[in-house]
Specification:
This protein is an alpha/beta fold. It is built from 36 helices and 20 strands. The longest helix is centred in the N-terminal third of the chain and has 36 residues. It binds thiamine diphosphate and magnesium ion (MG).
Amino acid sequence: MSSHAYPAVLKGVKNEVAYPGADDGQIAEWLEALDQVIDADGPQGASQLLLALLNRAAQAGVGTPLQHNTPYINTIPPDQEVAFPGDRVLEQRIESLIRYNALAMVARANKYDENIGGHMSSFASLATLLEVGFHHFFRGSIGDQAGDLIYFQGHSSPGIYARAYLEGRLTQQHLFNFRHELREHPGLSSYPHPWLMPEFWQFPTVSMGLGPINAIYQARFIKYLENRGIVPVSNRKVWAFLGDGEQDEPESRGALTVATREGLDNLVFVINCNLQRLDGPVRGNGRIIQELEANFLGAGWNVIKCLWGSNWDDLLARDTSGLLLRRMSECVDGEYQAFKALGGAYLREHFFGKYPELLKSVEGISDDDLASLSRGGHDPVKIYNAYKRATEHQGAPTVILAKTIKGYGLGDAAEGRNFAHNTKKLKDEQLAYIVKRFEMDVPEKKIDHLELHHPGPESDEIKYLKQRREELGGYLPSRNSHKELAFAAPALDIFKDVLEGTKGRAASTTSGFNAVLNALLKQKELAKYIVPIIPDEGRTFGMEALFRQIGIYASHGQLYTPVDSNQFLYYRESQDGQLIEEGITEAGSMATFTAAGTAYANFGVPMIPFFVYYSMFGFQRVGDLAWAFADARGKGFMVGGTAGRTTLLGEGLQHEDGHSHVLASTIPTCAAYDPAYAYEIAVIIQDGLRRMYEAKEDLFYYLTVYNENYVQPPMPNGVEPGILKGLYRFKPAETAEAIVHLFGSGPILNEAVRAQHILKVKYSIDADVWSATSYSELRRDALACERWNRLHPAGPSRTPYLLQVLEGHDGPIVAASDYMKIMVDGLAPWLPGRITALGTDGFGRSENREYLRRHFEVDAESITVAAISSLAKIQKVPLEMVADAMADLGVDPNKPDAARA
Ligand SMILES: Cc1ncc(C[n+]2csc(CCOP(=O)(O)OP(=O)(O)O)c2C)c(N)n1
Ligand SMILES: [Mg+2]
């Protein structure tokens, strides 16, 4: 007799994949032989035999049938389970308390503040999956032990708060103020937001799909830090609790093979397969668990299905006909949802009733007992075993597909119902139902008033819960902002070469940026913290010297002799490589940027990421990841290369970026700069390091760098504050007081300088040229001053930097950049009627810079005409001069408007 868990199932199932005309007898013989091997040698031996058979078939030219699904039962058979090590009774009581408090918190919030929101059903399905982790697996950071990093399903936050309340980390007041963040006693944020609760939440997850991709790259980043010797090797895990509906996001599944390629056995995904998303079933007509299994197996993950609770074990063991397994496998998720929602009698009739023999097998079981047949994700024994296997698995990441019920325990009103997701209020009797259902001991008065229930610090439950967490290293989630961790920013003069300019040689700001990066890489203390991240375009940005110099990170080292090994700058991959060549994935690069940019909090090491990419494929491509980066209080530099709609020549509409600065300006902690010259970059990066890592401000930077070559001038004296604040006078009119001012950003500053010359030589007009390094910083400062003045009308009033620096410089302003006009227009309220914006609104074209700049009217000639036109408007020059200048400079007044072309 086999010692295996589901022998009857294995032996009884007919061969459903047989081809027409297959010899049933022959197949039966083979199956029997296999059964014997399983009996004799166990699953390991059988698995070897199957592999050998597949190899033989392949040698004989037989196309081997690929099957990326296992039967619809638990991956771990009962006889391979270990005993549950905890006190099940106490753990159940603790879980019930958490369920109760989470519900009371959300219901209370909605009772007193209609539509304030909150979710009940997601956590209800996730509770046991989390609790087994909290009691037995999730390690905190303590002493030498590196804690686990946990990505919680965002909308399960009520349960996490309820647990922290039992732990004594959050007070009743906190929970009463759930979703009341702006009151006298600020409460709890809706979802995991480190920005809002910096000592608590570590990872923003609620935007579907960001948790999974960030978790994968986080696990990879741990290996990177370990391989580079920056943190000690540990067995800390990254856990990601995810929704089954969430798996439809491309970010959820798009990076699965990264995890196998990198051998991330420090990563565990737990997918809460409650078969539902917000509106209805995830795959009403199919089986999401089987779909995910195939997907993850195909990507090389270790897949553990945890589908059925222990009370199915016996039924499965008795399934001599194989009909139960067949029935389990053939039902679609829409049916499973109904089986749970509609009760035991329905289950009997529609599930077991499909086959008379199957129906017979449950004859002696009451409807109530049928209804209580549980799912794997609600059974601590099954979950414990799945987690144990997952954490012991080596060489590959693990996904646990846990079958659960949305709204579990909430009763008929929510369990498995399509509207479960939006259940926020409880009917009067519902909380009482839950108390009864989970056999809790909560005073009726508390239930009636939606009061929380804490059994007191001396209760068995709280003592047990605290002891478990103590043994595992402390409470989670917990974010350590490492406020004590800081380093002194290097002095500006380490960038001496850059500050001196290129002395007549033409070079781009991209190469200026590279020079800055190189100078940083020469800093003894700081160099090791730098993490350059590139999604494949390193050569485009002239960064290939770094390949050899600091090496490309490769977890396996370099297993081949690179084709260019005879060259000095060969493609050097190494296990301790510093540069991350992410491949063509901006989302993946952004996830690495996030892991690196928050390493100061998660690992206590102040990593300094530089994410260098094609600016067009930045914010508009991965904007939500950038938003989450800011929420996570990420630090670092995003560097948008090949910037500028007219500066990136030839590439056309999909490549030429004229709006990433608009998008960058929407992120509150992003300081965005559009520098014209290399010395500006040096000043911005030096100050960025000071602010982020010395002064410990939570912000990050966006810089655009361009590929146009021109002479990089030396830094004029005393311009540093202006560079940082966003504007300084770069080249004053030479002979007389200027009557018009030209602002320029990026390479368009050179066009302004050329316009200054044309204005003087051809029209005897004196103009000042200003470098506008950041319209968004100028506007933020002006808005802050205006707000202050509005709220403090009695004064003294504050003057925006913009007006301070323009003091005494009257006359119209023409502001031109390679970005949209709206950047400039943001300053209009403080310069009424004074400023004309020239920018690159509209779709790009494949052309050279000369034509592109004329098309978008940001070339010197267009700037000149705009300057004369604005002077004519205030009668400083005769009106005819405008038409004359247009004719003279070849600016066609009837040409199409680029904004709409
Ligand atoms: C990118 C994004 N789109 C939409 C939403 C809104 N939303 C919140 S929860 C949810 C359903 C989640 O379903 P699932 O992942 O299955 O989680 P469950 O609650 O069932 O555990 C949706 C669509 C979101 N949070 N993020
Ligand atoms: Mg779901």
